[in-house]
Write a structure and sequence with these properties.
It is a single chain. It is built from 1 helix and no strands. By secondary structure, it is mostly helical. The longest helix is centred in the middle third of the chain and has 120 residues. The chain is rod-shaped, with a radius of gyration of 53 Å. The protein starts with a helix and ends with a helix. InterPro entries: BLOC1S1. Pfam families: GCN5L1. It comes from Nezara viridula (Southern green stink bug).
Length: about 120
């Protein structure tokens, strides 16, 4: 009777150990699943942040390139406007020179006409 109680006790203890071992394995598996689910949830946010950062970097690069192209175009336009302004100044200078020559020629013409009239009115004796 004592030996049967001892065997029954050992059998119960063994059954409890097996049950406890199964529950421990289930708890480990559940903890592992929970950890994996948490990591996956966090990774989704990190992956989204990474994709956003990658898109921002691409857009910043494109913006920089557009700004550089704009600066080049602006410099070209400034050069063209400066050349045009210089050409206008030269035309203005030529026009001023031509007006001065024309005025001088008018003065010379008037002087010659006056001299001609004077010599016609008072012929040399």
């Amino acid at each position: 009777m004592l030996t049967s109680l001892l065997k029954e006790h050992h059998a119960n203890q063994l059954a409890r150990k097996e049950t406890q071992e199964e529950k421990r394995k289930e708890a480990i598996a559940a903890a592992s699943d929970l950890t994996q689910a948490l990591v996956d949830h966090l990774n989704v946010g990190v992956a989204q942040a990474y994709l956003n950062q990658k898109r921002l970097d691409a857009e910043a690069k494109q913006l920089h390139q557009n700004a550089t192209n704009f600066a080049k175009n602006t410099q070209q336009w400034l050069s063209l406007v400066e050349g045009f302004s210089s050409a206008l100044k030269e035309i203005g200078d030529v026009e001023n020179w031509a007006q001065m020559i024309e005025n001088d020629m008018k003065t010379v013409t008037c002087a010659l006409e006056y001299a001609y009239k004077v010599t016609q009115e008072n012929p040399p004796s």
